[in-house]
Predict the structure.
Amino acid sequence: MKLSRNWKIVIGILTIAQLFIGLFFLVWFLSSLLPLIAAGNDAAIDSQFFASIGGIIVLIAFLTLLSFGVLVFYLIHAGTNRHITNTMKVVWIVLLLLFGSIVEVVYFFMEIVPEKSMTARLEQD
């Protein structure tokens, strides 16, 4: 699959964005609840949690859709990559399914950014 420079940038932004959004969510959630948990104020914990439940649901839904969409793109790209052998296609697909976002970043920098696939270069040596 041949991607233009602009599409590579968009895919890179989406790939990195899902990691930062997930990290932001985790930090936000923990920073808002940990002080209340440390204080032992159960009423404040409940009110804080229920006050932010709408934002939590929207953020989780958005992150889920973004991650699923990016994963589908990478699975299609790995499956149709003409520069690597079928064995490496299977390896990339299994890694993408097992480790998700982390492998997506690695795949992006090894297969999408360079003009010639780094996996194909390694297979030739």
